Amino acid sequence: MKKLMPGLFLILLAGHAGAEEAGGFLDSVAKVNDAVNGVVWGVPALVLLAFVGVLMTVLTKVFQVSHFGHWMKKTIGAIFRDRHVTTHTKDKSISQFQSLCTALAATVGTGNIVGVAGAIIVGGPGAVFWMWVMAFLGMMTNYSENVLGIFYRRKNAKGEWSGGAMYYLRDGLGARKGCKTVGKVLAWLFSFFCLVASFGIGNMTQVNSISGNMESVFGIPTWVTGVIIMVLVGLVVVGGLKRIASVTEKVVPFMVILYMVGSIAIFFINIGHVGAVFTSIFRSAFGLEAAAGGVVGYGIRLAIEQGMKRGVFSNEAGLGSSVMVHSNSNVKEPVKQGMWGIFEVFADTIVVCTLTAFSILSSGLVNLETGVTATEFVNSAGQTVALGKANLVSAVFNQNFGFIGSAFIAISIMLFAFSTVLGWSHYGTKACEYLLGEKRTVPYRVLFVLLVFGGAVMGDNLAWDLADTFNGLMMIPNLIGVIALSGVVAKITKNYVNRVMRGSKEEPMYSAFQDIQIEEENAPNSPEDEV
User: Which pTM value belongs to this model?
Assistant: First the structure.
């Protein structure tokens, strides 16, 4: 591990070095990161992201809409009808519900609160519209990743499923004529970027949000929060995927429902502003409110850029990350796990992020005519507080519920971020396993836990900027793989629709590997798998 990327680890650890010594170094890191970020999140990368979503939507015949009832029935609906979906497995796999909760643990994080606030502050209300667009397309991107993840997954020496973009790049794209080397290189790059990203988007950024909110709301020093979270993460992560899944299946439903209840309460309190909020979103999305100022193009660009970036940060569709836990599911139908991917994006962005956006835009802290966010806020204690992305939602809840509202958001962010750290620890572990072998995953987990403290005391802006960059770096090789294997996804989808929905007697497509295909064909079906 140390031989692989010592420079990057030094950058990540520098956040908790002495303030004076680290200041100049972190400034240099920020400048380099800005340059890289400008490339990986430039127009070509955003076009690539949108193109893949459109491509997979077309090739699957708009599956997320045309088969809406079916995928809802087979996902959230199946939880209440099929014990196979929720029952804990005795082998090394995890249940479908656990895979969803672990994936949601990694996606439903600070991006749903702080990320949405940041998108609105920089891109205006219109950024919300572009988050919706990316979520609609991202449903099929995430679906495709999960289908490929199940189809190309393998078992490691311990009998655990190992799947993800690195495997469908190596064994899918790499199996094409003349693409063996390309597939291996892209698989290595994806794993490397994922490993590094696990310390950014999956660790330090999340913990940074926890420590910042704990300090601003409860006055708890960031280093104290860092130590506590580090210990808690360590206790769960050392137990591996089974323990992570066991914790997330309890924490995730509770935290999502809790946050939704609070957000829905604000929705009804401000229900009279619904029309104005949605009008502002659509006007801002196309720069209409800035027409008189002559900066329409700039306003639209900011709205699109922020909506796309924060949308991906929220639901991670296109990164190829959540497929690494979905591949551990006890499901055998690739399409069935793909449908959990659709639901994951739907729940994360269409539901949770929209509730956050409405809470912010109906609060009066954002001018719905100009899209400009207030810079200060007088809280329930009569104190004037500077507003930013880290505390905007907290201010909204304080406005409606006083100190209890601020405390509610601080606790919500803590739960969201903590669960994200747990989910991403698994992603990083799988990337480490692919790059360095199973034996190196223990040192990785130790390092991951130690860096939790670094995230707690790192500067807010640098942590988020690093996370953005790592997102983009992961995205590129993954999307190349999805495009190259888009025909495979379309074929598997058609096979499933013909068999399960139309009663055709076609041979099922469970795996790209004959030994696993035979094993799955002989495995018993759950009630939900029956035609």
Answer: 0.86
